[in-house]
Amino acid sequence: MKIKFLLSLLVIAIAALAVVRWSSAQPVPGDPLIEGFRTVEVASVADAVEQLYGHRAHMSHQMRPLFMTKFAGPAVTVLLKKEEHHEGAAASQGMLDAIDAAPAGSVYVMVLEDGADTAGIGGLMATAMKVRGLTGAIVDAAIRDTPQIRRLQFPVFSTGIAPSTSINHYRFVGTNVPVTCAGVRVNPNDIIVADDDGVAVVPREHAADVLKKAQQLDYTEHSMMPFIEKYRSIKEAVEKFGRI
């Protein structure tokens, strides 16, 4: 009986320590822009940027989530170039350093040149990102170790899945540099907004205006749905609310 009691205390202590470690890695709440973007739909964000500034904000349709998810956070960018060599992991060390240096709440935005058939990240890097408190990862390349990543429930978007490695085939170029990810320019600290529809990029300097517009678009669209259900006419709804 005493042994069972001691084992129970040990289990509780281990669980409490895990919670403390997890909590210490989580983003500090309070950034109203990030919190706001976590509640709006990516479709509204993409529309807002186009309506306000006349350019595309959403990544290619090939950028898809490993599982259903929704998140937003500031970008930490990582760029690798294609190059055959025999230096092993040392040539890619920077992509790992970027994880350890990234503030909690960040979104890891990784671009591999011509990386459709090369895995940019796998289970080990995803584990490191999760315990460091990153919000998610956007990988303009393939990913691997998908069963492990699913078990972690760490949100990852990628352009595909492949079992290959980047080691000895790619070289780290830089972190927190401007990149073009799945067709869209991403600067360090731009806000990444992701859900099941895809990924949108909001330039940090326009974030407040884009959020306000996206919230308005969300409100309008959500108001239209009960109207359509009641009057059974999308034409009347569009005429009344001015959105489609």
Which key terms come to mind for this protein?
244 residues; nine-stranded mixed β-sheet; 41% helix
Residue share in helix = 40-55%
Rg computed from alpha carbons, rounded to a whole number of angstroms: 21 Å
Order of helices and strands: HHHEEHEEHEHEEEEEEHH
Content of β-strand: 15-25%
What is the first-to-last residue Cα distance? 67 Å
Mean pLDDT rating: 88
Characterise the protein shown here.
The chain is an alpha/beta fold. Helix content is 41%, strand content 24%. The chain contains eight helices and eleven strands. The chain has helices spanning 2-24, 32-37, 42-53, 93-101, 123-131, 146-152, 207-231, 234-241; strands spanning 64-65, 71-82, 107-112, 119-121, 136-143, 156-161, 170-175, 179-181, 184-186, 191-195, 198-202. Strands 1, 2, 3, 4, 5, 6, 7, 10 and 11 form a nine-stranded mixed sheet that branches. β2, α4 (93-101) and β3 form a beta-alpha-beta unit. α5 packs parallel to α6. The protein is elongated and about 65 Å long. The N and C termini lie far apart (67 Å). The model is unreliable at 4-28 (pLDDT under 50).
